[in-house]
Amino acid sequence: MIWAIIIPLMAIISIVLFWMVFKNSPSKFENLAINKLGYEQALKRSEVIRTIYSLLIFAFVGGLIDYFEYQGWAKTYQGVLSFGYGYLVLSIFLLFGINDIYFYLSHRFLHWKPIFKKVHFMHHQSHTPNPFSAFSFHPLEGFIQIGFLPIIILILPLNNYVLFGFIVFLMLMSVYGHSGYELRPKKAKVFEIFNNSIHHNQHHRYVHYNFGLYLNLWDQIFKTNHPEYEEETTFYKNRIS
């Protein structure tokens, strides 16, 4: 696979998908809206420019993966039978689990005051998140966010289709978290361990809370959930009942 094209392309598709769905049908999803402003009002020119830079960084990192595969350094593979179906399933859990921990820790690092003031503050200039906010980064943060991929393929054997599926899901979840809409307010209690859009929307509003990506586990363990996270989630559950 040509990862230098796939990674930025999946990011673009995710942005366009959420933008088109929610920009053109605001009344249809009114009950799911977290943000008061529409996308066109919320969008800043700087977010578009920084997103373009991030896409170039994604392409560069994808190129690194391509180079690692060309050199035979990457542990990616094609056939399922190379490691068996059992490992295929296990590798999916390992990939998502390691990425979830990496994101939480790197996100906390980005909020370290010296780094925040020079790097991560740019992302937090998106006070009203929208699809373009998802990848509106300082270039260094862009490398940190996507830099997980060329590292993990040197360590963990991964089927190329698993890696592709992971990239698609990662990009969709990143944009979903910045969409300003809560798409899963009525999820079953067993799934409450997974973060929702409210979780990251609060992060942009309150800055010092809600650092997790997929799982709410790390915010619970390190007590970094916003005090009103559960209350606001309940509000949206009741709002669409």
Task: Outline the structure in words.
By secondary structure, the chain is mainly α. It has one domain (3-21, 34-183). The chain has eleven helices and two strands; from the N terminus they run H-H-H-E-H-H-H-H-E-H-H-H-H. It has helices at 3-24, 39-42, 45-71, 84-110, 113-118, 139-146, 148-155, 160-177, 197-206, 217-221, 229-239; strands at 76-77, 158-159. A two-stranded parallel sheet has the order 1-2. Helix 3 crosses helix 6. The longest helix is centred in the first third of the chain and has 27 residues, at 45-71. InterPro entries: Fatty_acid_hydroxylase, Sterol_Desaturase_Related. GO terms for molecular function: iron ion binding; oxidoreductase activity. Residues 93-224 form the Fatty acid hydroxylase domain.
Keywords:
mainly alpha; 241 residues; globular; two-stranded parallel ribbon; 61% helix; 2 strands
Strand content: under 5%
Instruction: Please give the domain count.
Output: 1
Distance between the termini: 44 Å
Which H/E pattern describes the elements? HHHEHHHHEHHHH
Give the overall silhouette.
globular
Total helical segments: 11
The major beta sheet can be summarized as: 2 strands, parallel
Helix content: 55-70%
**Rg to the nearest angstrom?**
18 Å
Structural class by SSE content: mainly alpha
Runs in which pLDDT lies below 50 for 5 or more consecutive residues are none
Number of strands: 2
Give the strand line-up of the largest sheet.
1-2
Instruction: Indicate the mean pLDDT.
Output: 93
